[in-house]
Amino acid sequence: KDAAKLAGLNVLRLLNEPTAAAIAYGLDNASEGVYAVYDLGGGTFDISILRLSKCVFEVLATNGDSALGGDDFDQRIYCWVLEQAGLSQLGVNDVRLLLTHARTAKEQLTDNLQAQITAVLSGGELVDVTLTREAFYDMTKNLLARTMQPTRKALRDAGLGVDEIKGVVMVGGSTRMPQVQRAVAEYFKQTPLTNLDPDKVVALGAAIQANVLAGNRSADDWLLLDVIPLSLGIETMGGLTEKIIPRNSTIPTARAQEFTTYKDGQTAMSIHVMQGERELVSDCRSLAQFELRGIPPMVAGAARIRVTFQVDADGLLSVSAREMITGHESSIAVKPSYGLSDEAITQMLKDSAQHAKDDMQARALREQQVEARQLLEAVGNALQEDGALLDSDSMAAIRASMEGVRFLLEGEDQTAIKRAVEALNQATLAFAQARMDKSVSGALKGHKMSDLES
């Protein structure tokens, strides 16, 4: 959006390519159902799963490979030519020449069973080879297989099977290759939709939406629902990320969750907005940070702080925090996608999958550490207020249990910390009962039984 403004363009709405393709097919062909948008361009591959119904376009899931495209197919032909002609260590001009011929041969094989590659190099060498469609198919099989892995992930994220896909929309000039259409047809068990020009389908969809946004709405009005690529949430105690809006949620959307204070008498709370799929804040992307002040001082856990996330149709995130008793509120707005490339999103998703088990173990450890620290603080405050209720042996036993918890907090054995917390809880049972008896006695002091009965 910022780049468009710098170019002097008035941005009405941001629209990703797969969604634009869905608009083109949905409005031109009156298609309804769940569709896959298979977008293989010159340098990248994207797959989107969309639900098209009357007046509604909903993106269910997206995935892709930012390092795979038509250029990789050209490179395979180029390497094959070098092998066939017995060439090596070419100059820059010769490499460019052969890559140009490779691209031309690739395009010729769309409508022909073979293509002739003839070129004279700068050193006078003649290159004259014939590439068949089947040979081209064999040398690019693994490239096609690489497009199927993100496709399977997108279907899994959408909670759908191949048999639930009504049609496959082909986008990008590279989808003209017969082996691409064949691979897609075999995977989805149906012939892909190719009745719109794959080079123009995105522009057509964007033009259709621009026409609507300009005020030229028809009787058949429609709504577009996109998705957020990465989860959004906030930091909680222990450096953990609490996800509020999960990835692949349709936008516009709004979700709220209540949080509370960590310490007695806490009157302010820092809201750290995070983006990503990992469990620890250190592994996620920081988006913004603001403070909510004016929280009434009360015991830890008593305050109610409602944090609301709202994402509009352009992907702009607004976060607000409201203290429910006083009504004090603070907020901030941020663009989650600003400065975030498709490659970065892909890498963040890969990292979350690769470290899923480690992340869950790390989260369990942090949560146990937070619980242990809260218990230590609560017991410490109780001893300071009512330590006189204990004899020396009981006091020594509780302090020994507290030291055991503190010692284990320095390590990373979550099970050991949990056992130490349970032991401290057990050691303070009698003390807790004595404090309760004291509190009840204090409340009853100076009152007659008849006063209580009335």
pLDDT < 50 stretches:
none
> How big a fraction of the residues is strand?
15-25%
CATH architecture of the largest domain: 2-Layer Sandwich
Spatially, the strands of the biggest sheet line up as 6-1-2-3-7-10
What is the mean pLDDT? 86
The CATH class name of the largest domain reads Alpha Beta
By DSSP, the count of extended strands is 16
Query: What is Rg?
Result: 31 Å
Main sheet specs: 6 strands, mixed
Helix content: 40-55%
The coarse silhouette is: elongated
How many domains in all? 3
Strand-pairing-aware structural class: alpha+beta
- Any idea of the CATH topology of the largest domain? Nucleotidyltransferase, domain 5
What pattern of helices and strands is seen along the backbone? Answer: HHEEEHHEEHHEHHEEEEEEEEEEHHHHHH
> Between the first and last Cα atoms, what is the distance in angstroms?
70 Å
- What's the total helix number? 14
The CATH homologous superfamily of the largest domain is termed: ATPase, nucleotide binding domain
